[in-house]
Design goal:
It contains 15 helices and 22 strands. By secondary structure, it is of the alpha/beta class. The longest helix is centred in the middle third of the chain and has 17 residues.
Amino acid sequence: MKSSLRWTIVFAVATVALLAGCTPAAQNGATVPATDSPRGVVPAPASIEAGAAGARFRLDDTVRITGDADAATALAAVLTARTGVAPADGAAGSNADEGVIDLRISGGGSSESYRIAADAASVVVTGADAAGLFYGVQTLGQLVARDGDSFTIPAVQITDAPRFAYRGVMLDVARHFHSVETVQAYIDRASSLKFNALHLHLSDDQGWRIHLDSRPELTALASTTAVGGDAGGFYSKADYREIVRYAASRHMIVVPEIDLPGHTHAVGLAYPELVEEPALSQHISNGEGEPPTAGVPYTGISVGFSSLKINDEAAYEFVADVMGELAAMTPGAYLHIGGDEALGTEPEDFALFVERATEIVADLGKIPVTWHEAGSAPGIDPSTIGQYWGFTTPTDGMDEQARAFVEKGGGLIISPADAVYLDMKYDADSPLGLTWANGPTSVERAYSWEPGSIIDGVEEDDILGVEAPMWTETIRTLDDIDQMAFPRIAAAAEAAWSPAPGDSALRTWQSFRERVGAQGPLWSSLGIRFHASDEIPWVTE
């Protein structure tokens, strides 16, 4: 049943782009009734205290939203999706009987922090800055619960701030291309869980996905295919600017990645003089499909066979052109240059390449980011951030490579593949995903790890943050993204935002599964086709 409430906002409401028109996923997991508990917040806040027993702020047609216009628009979007009723335009006069939701920026507190104070008469959300207020609004949306034929917010006091400065998601648009609209939808989903960085994997053996004026043949000749022979695609410069703009409106930066010196078969389709012949040997990671052939688009999923010509100066002219143009289009601080799985490249050549490439990026005024393998190079630029993608228990010296970034003066992004790679199967019967990262990744395994305990000798201050990648060998649509990301993306969000497990009573698997279960009605109202894992007690209304 739809509520009859009407939202009155005391400024002209901007047009709100809602995630609408999607049918919620069938919920096959165990379900429980909704409750009045204020504890169904994900990621877990630093502090949350229930107010007076039974006290609730009622969302009826007398409620006004006051204060910051951008935050009010964001809240209107959440409440509209949650309740099914659009906000009304125009100003409203004061009434002694009306409830008020006041949204403020205080200018005090740590970056991205916020406070919520809710009782039966009013709700006040105070952000230290615009991002903090935005995150407070997301939390407030999670607190909304159905109460008969209406909706309420429980009385509660919340004080919250992020644990890590960098909280990222990665979307691979190279193995399968995803439209601007799909990327924007993923930005909406990620920012609602307080992620603040979108890492776009823009190139790989299967395709090149960004137009650059300095190297136009990349999209002209190397963008049309994808894994399995599916259609490819690419972003124009206007498309990329729109992604950057949209992300910024949700307080996210964009981190573009051009994967080098390996994963460059597509580069060879456009500029064959820059790449080596495919290196086919027992060291190459096996996948599906035909073996790679020089000059022929590659649509399989093997890795490690391609490389730029490390000792050819033209390769570095290429890097300078590509990174220079990307830097000019990217307001964020970071440029990612890949550096993983260069299995066909000799170690000394690999070291030479990443040393020169990180220097090129640093000279552009950006901070280089690489996958952890580049830590083996002694002369990488000292500002370089390493992204660790090994397992929660490191193998094959991956922890040593990761520590090297810290020892050189950089930092780490933690992305353990067997915990936060969102494209891993949930279980052996999952229709989507892969299993190479220690087999399937259940929701509990996605939650049960600690960023500060992965790499010995790395302190909390050495960790820039946490990132959850979504590789797309099997991921073709937004529905596929939703199925594989939700609910495990919430576990990554909690690792990135919330206090460490020993510092919060909420940081337990049992608490998390109950809090995630409470998100079911909200996610469904937003059109998120989440995987209704039977590990989670999903709330019904």
